[in-house]
Amino acid sequence: MSAVETLLAKRTALRRGLLRWYDREARDLPWRRTSDPYHVWVSEIMLQQTQVATVEPYYGRFLAAFPTVEALAAAEPDAVLKQWEGLGYYRRAKNLHKAAGVVVAELEGRLPRTAAGWRALPGIGRYTAAAIASIAFGEAAAVLDGNVKRVLARTLAIRESIDLPATEAELWQAAEAMVTAHRPGDVNQAMMELGARVCTPRAPQCLTCCVRNVCDAAAAGLQEVLPVRTKKSATPHYEVVAAAIRRHNRYLMGRRPDDAMLGGLWEFPGGKLADGETHAEGLRRELLEETGLTVEVGPRLATVEHAYTHFSITLHLYLCNAPDGQPHPHWHTRLRWVCPCEFDDFAMPGATRKLLEACDLRNPAPPA
């Protein structure tokens, strides 16, 4: 039997178990207290690759700042990024803002009611469109995120890597078979919730699982080895240097290009070290390339570690002096001298915030 045939044979029992458990055990989350499609949309974008506990405070603050799609569309890009600061994956915020503009300008402020309509908006893919349409409008549209993949792969005892395109296509078919006209949004959320809380990547809680009686992996004792994942290559690591260039108790900061990673955020200028470069050599080279300034490299102020999705960095901040010349944005879209009292007004990358927490730029001194 194919995965879909196996799913169809046990669908009634699966759906019944999931919905009973969800009705009894679902977490009381703020975006579950509303069917407002704008609120559901914001929550689904925030929840992409981000844990629920991280999203909760951002969700409330973001909606307080932009309570309607019209308010979001009218906002300045920097204001949107500031509200998103610390949540990561900033392209989500930029696409959310861009899509709000499309809704207001082209759809007269009316949000789509179907998954197909949502997919026509910037930054919304198959999963997110289905989640919004099923939760807010009751469309029988299937979702497939990491949690749902794991639940289905174990329930159906799929032994092929879930990272393979063929396996993912099979999982999509199974997910689509799970949703019907009856409570599609709740079925989708129940599978996501089960994967997050019970059918976890390690040490799944099979004894308390609401669908253990129809789980093929549990029956075969395979729950600890499924799902199979393709082994990933080692994550690259880079040494990065940045400059706190001070003039009149203000520091030079640059706004990253909108189309770059972390686009639109403000940072201390600098960059990755080239092979064989010392910190001072790399910093002088980067500053000359990015700003046209020739700097004197002073003491190291802070060193922090930061991990991104596909690489990690060690970031070193140095106090620097550039007594002559005016900086020009050769890579950044803007450069600005910023007083320490203004730092909180700017949206900055997480690594830059870590540097600010690690040193006091009002009274900079080298670490002991």
Task: Give me the secondary-structure topology.
Blueprint: H1 3-25, H2 37-47, H3 52-65, H4 69-74, H5 77-84, H6 91-106, H7 115-119, H8 126-137, H9 146-155, H10 165-178, H11 184-197, H12 216-220, E1 237-247, E2 250-255, E3 266-267, E4 270-272, H13 279-291, E5 296-307, E6 312-321, E7 334-338, H14 350-358
Helix pairs in contact: 1-10, 1-11, 2-3, 2-8, 8-11, 9-10, 9-11
3D structure, described in words:
The chain has 368 residues and is of the alpha+beta class. The chain has two domains: 218 residues, Endonuclease III, domain 1 (Orthogonal Bundle); 122 residues, Nucleoside Triphosphate Pyrophosphohydrolase (Alpha-Beta Complex), CATH 3.90.79.10. It is 43% helix and 13% strand. The protein is built from 14 helices and seven strands. Strands 1, 2, 3, 4, 5, 6 and 7 form a seven-stranded mixed sheet that branches. Strand 5 and strand 6 form a beta hairpin. Helix 9 crosses helix 10 and helix 9 crosses helix 11. The longest helix is centred in the N-terminal third of the chain and has 23 residues. It is elongated and about 75 Å long. It starts with a helix and ends in a 10-residue tail after the last helix.
